[in-house]
Prior knowledge:
By secondary structure, this protein is an all-alpha fold. It folds into two domains: 12-161, Growth Hormone, Chain: A (Up-down Bundle), CATH 1.20.1250.20; 163-203, no CATH class. It has ten helices and no strands. Residues 1-224 form the Major facilitator superfamily (MFS) profile domain.
Amino acid sequence: FVFDKSEFIDTFPSELNYVCDSGKEVLVTTLVQSQLIGVLIGAWMSGILSDRFGRKPVLIGSMLIMGLSGLASSVSSDPYSFWVLRFLVGVGCSSTFTTSFVVGVEFIGPQARIHAGIVIEYAYAFGLILLVGIAYLLRYWRWLNIAVSALSLFSILLIWLLVESPRWLISRGRLAEAEALIRKAAKVNGVELPTDLELRPPSENVSKTPDSESADDSDRSSPT
């Protein structure tokens, strides 16, 4: 096949001739679907894993999966390995976004939580705009893939500035670690906390219902 390459150097389908009547054009459709399937799986698994192992390790792992799979797919020359690698990119991408969103809102108080969630979406929109500019400059799919994946791996350097979510630590009963992080945040923000600050797991913060209180009263008043 002969392609008009006045606007680009090559895409994955044009480089491998997976177009028109080649009989393999259907593979291109499934390649797009593979990443979307990965997005679905990543969004589902990230919540389960981050609740069990913590926000920070899941976020680091997701970024590694996204970046390394993206780089590996840049050198792929067959649709089958490309399918698997783009699936993993979808898993990492979705998991990174979902976990980042959770971390962002868990660090913010109730008054500003809605605004924090919106600001996170700004980064997503800016990334799409940036992608257009990079694609305009790098008109070969392998170069574009490498550039975007390299940005994902570079962002891992910022992970050293990230601490575990205090809310998650409290939910797991790791109260001393949570208090240390809260006091550090208070110091940075110029807020003075009481010296006798007491943190309790969520199960101990649940207030009793009127029915349970009346039941307790009746138990205490009943003869033994």
